[in-house]
Amino acid sequence: MRTYLVTGGAGFIGSNYIHYMFEKYGDDIRIINVDALTYAGNLENLKDVEDRDNYTFVKADICDKEAIRKIFSENDIDRVVHFAAESHVDRSIKNPEVFVKTNVLGTLVMLNCAKESWEEGESFKEGKKFLHVSTDEVYGSLEKEGEYFYETTPYDPHSPYSASKASSDMIVKSYMDTYKFPANITNCSNNYGPYQFPEKLIPLMINNALSGKKLPIYGDGKNVRDWLYVRDHAKAIDMVMEEGKLFETYNIGGHNEKQNIEIVNTIIEVLQEELDDNDPRKKLVSKDLITYVTDRKGHDRRYAIAPDKIKAAVGWEPDTMFKEGIRMTIKWYFEHEDWMKNVTSGDYQKYYQEMYKNR
């Protein structure tokens, strides 16, 4: 049975990846989920799998070398999928130190512990692989229409968050080049879908609109992002892990370039279509809620990924176009109102902090 060590598996993308992997492989794999359970980690995301015999959760910080080393020493880890990261740009502007510690030093700890465990003489044990999950934000901003991010695009990060991810990418690349460490790097576009923390654009707008709260949009609302449904991202990671060529970087894009204002308008339109006429929230959902606010510092204008390489290498391309994906996402939030209430109230943290306070 192949054993996967997933870091940050209680977060948005990590938990979706774990669900995807169990749906695809069932009892043929084992997953060890390591998460520090910061504000973005929520074990409610994994309620459906927590009782599986082939699933284990370990509360640990990726910066804790001894804790990570212990996991490797007690388990025969075949694959590492490294999601764990601080990822919210606004938070990075207010507190860059946390981002450098987790994203840079945490990645270094993960690499060193995997390297120690997998080394076999001058090479590495057969079949071992480390996949580092990164972001398109490391490339900076596209200013011209028709331009795209490729794997060869020079790095040009503009926020403490993107700079910390660029640094972690460079460390992984250095291990591949220096030690021939068996790894890949993936750089993805903006993800959306179930279990996303509501400080992010799409769940924030859904939640605010249903509550009749203002819908804050930075600047003129015309910043462009390439949107990727999270399940498509999980599928891409699995395909790179199993079929990708070692030491390569693969960009994962959604072919869904949208201005922020387009996203918000689409959310409002879909909510109005999906809400029953007798639902009092339908009267609350309105474009009058849109409020333009002072632009974010260092706000990149446009991101767009060309996923040509990953398609050619492993045959991956996104299955979900935005209009379909946003409908599925809104439906999920409708069906999981208690999840949203627990997250926005902070109750999810209280429960798990109490559970793990002595572990």
Automatic annotation (TrEMBL):
SUPFAM superfamilies: NAD(P)-binding Rossmann-fold domains. One of its GO terms (molecular function) is dTDP-glucose 4,6-dehydratase activity. Keywords: Lyase, NAD. Pfam families: GDP_Man_Dehyd. One of its GO terms (biological process) is nucleotide-sugar metabolic process. Residues 5-329 form the NAD(P)-binding domain. Its EC number is 4.2.1.46. It catalyses: dTDP-alpha-D-glucose = dTDP-4-dehydro-6-deoxy-alpha-D-glucose + H2O. InterPro entries: dTDP_Gluc_deHydtase, NAD(P)-bd_dom, NAD(P)-bd_dom_sf. Its cofactor is NAD(+). Belongs to the NAD(P)-dependent epimerase/dehydratase family. dTDP-glucose dehydratase subfamily. This is dTDP-glucose 4,6-dehydratase.
